[in-house]
Fold this protein.
Amino acid sequence: MKKLVEGAVTEALHDGGGEVIRLYVAACAERMAPLFVGLRAGEPRREADLDFCAEAVRDLWNADRPLADAAERVRQLERFPELQPNEEGITDVASTYAFFAVLCLRYALVAHGSGSADDAVSCGHAALTALGMLDQNVPGARFLAEEQRLQSLSLRGDASGLWDASVAAGRERFRAVSGRLTG
């Protein structure tokens, strides 16, 4: 399978070290989080999952040091329904994008805790896969190209402006997916 993460991004993650990796995955997770939080809001018995996701994404922005409890958070996230095997597979739009958001967060937590560039690339790949699908289903969309641009931007090691850009991108993604649900 072709990796969607650009070669220069992959190389920078391998060369950049822990703080570069942690900032990169925090930004990826921030941009994808609205697809889980927004699509699962209001579902019965998911309030704790929504809170967990929001807290985990917030804590990922502490890029100066690895999360001490990253492994425990990964174990908790792996209990989410989105990551459970299902014989029917994922068949609806909301579940598809919620899955990719949770998968992105899972890789972000693993990479944040371990400093693994390979897990960071997997985090970015999950985001790019979801956005490539969204581009195919929303006429004129350019979410994949925007994610590639933001992934490159996140490697500069400067969080200023990156959080704002990531929040704005996440909102746009959620609006586009929501439009697919009602359109």
Notes: DSSP finds eight helices and no strands in the chain.
